[in-house]
Design goal:
With 390 residues, the chain is of the alpha+beta class. It folds into 3 domains: 114 residues, Acyl-CoA dehydrogenase/oxidase, N-terminal domain (Butyryl-Coa Dehydrogenase, subunit A, domain 1), CATH 1.10.540.10; 106 residues, Butyryl-CoA Dehydrogenase, subunit A, domain 2 (Beta Barrel), CATH 2.40.110.10; 141 residues, Butyryl-CoA Dehydrogenase, subunit A, domain 3 (Up-down Bundle). 47% of the residues lie in helices and 15% in strands. α4 runs antiparallel to α10 and α11 runs antiparallel to α12. The structure holds flavin-adenine dinucleotide (FAD). The site of flavin-adenine dinucleotide (FAD) has 18 residues, from β1, α12 and α13. The site of flavin-adenine dinucleotide has 18 residues, from β1, α12 and α13.
Amino acid sequence: MNFKFTDEQVKFRQEVRDFLEGEIKQGLWQPTCDAWIMAHDPEFTRRVSAKGWIGLTWPKEYGGQGRSFIDRLILTEEMLRYGAPAACHWFADRQIGGAIVHYGTDEQKEEILPIIMKGEAYVGLGMSEPDAGSDLASLKTRATEDGDDFIIDGQKTWTSGGSNMNWIYLVARTDPEAPKARGISEFFFRTDLPGVSVSPIVDITGGVHFNEVFFDNVRIPKTCLIGEKNRGFYQILNQLDFERSGMERLMANYPLFEALIQYVKETKRNGKPLAEDPVVRSKIAQLKIELEVGRLYMYRVGVIMDEGRAPNWESSMSKAYGTAFEQRLATAAIEIAGLYGQLSPASRLTPMRGMAYHSYLSSKGYSLQAGSSEVLKNIIAGRKLELSAK
Ligand SMILES: Cc1cc2nc3c(=O)[nH]c(=O)nc-3n(C[C@H](O)[C@H](O)[C@H](O)COP(=O)(O)OP(=O)(O)OC[C@H]3O[C@@H](n4cnc5c(N)ncnc54)[C@H](O)[C@@H]3O)c2cc1C
């Protein structure tokens, strides 16, 4: 086993860091937690695209860079470490482009991949419905064939990216007579169509990133179907393995970890720096151990992807670990800051730029998103440990 990055990878990481530090120095943005999903900055996305950093792993024949998943992990790890405002291109780059490379027609590859690589596809993820979350196969949104088109009717909920989207990835029922997992298909289309409406959901932090999305008689051409009709559910299972790779959850609150270290260096309690308090030192050292263990999970997923395999129980393990880590980090930050830690960013006395408050509240939801921890543990129990469930 070789835990070393290649010289090129070390250089690439430094290049990404130099770019991001340069951006921060110019005052273009400030690192924040969850910026990958909350901070939409089209100009930032344009600059990332100009570097060729969207579609890094996609084949060169489609305009990608043909680089390894470990290279991509290095890039995304640094984006998350610096809390960069990457929400405009994140979903398209992370999972939609890959799905089109894998399942798309030549026409879709030629038409859609360049739009994604230019950073112009702001994607909403339309899977869950009011009565279909963990049990996604129960979804009711219909896609009915009508000549060369499908007509979409129904409702999605918790659609991340929906407030800013100009494209949506949608799963809908194409065969209502078939057993429920066998009548589902995947679609990708522009959202500036008659009959699409979006209603934002304000989350517990006061932020908006997920939404309800309604489809009322929305007509889309059949060319929007991704992959095989009625095989969508099986395609999704594969895509979810990529979505769950875990890096977002491990690293999305890294700006809080850095701010916490800075805070204990600068803050005195009872006349003594917090950094000298043995309990505080132990808590932060423990978090550092956990962070480094989580990075190994994350890079294992990258290695599996580079071997051409879909990470399955491995990405479930990485995501379940990452969400538990971020909850422990947020709790530790709140405890160390005492009552001040609970202040919202609106207060002038908020420590750590309000990130402890934000992460404490938001980290609860992420153990539900993209597969709840209970569902992920079922995957590990069933597929890794071969514990059958009747
Ligand atoms: C921050 C956030 C962002 C999200 N973004 C998106 C998005 O972009 N697009 C999208 O489509 N959806 C999104 N979701 C929705 C998310 O995918 C669902 O919340 C998730 O699948 C769980 O579904 P549910 O909320 O209906 O809960 P349910 O499925 O009803 O689950 C309720 C509880 O029961 C448990 N449970 C369910 N089934 C089992 C089982 N078989 N074994 C053991 N326990 C079980 C769950 O773990 C959970 O604790 C997002 C959710 C959050 C919180």
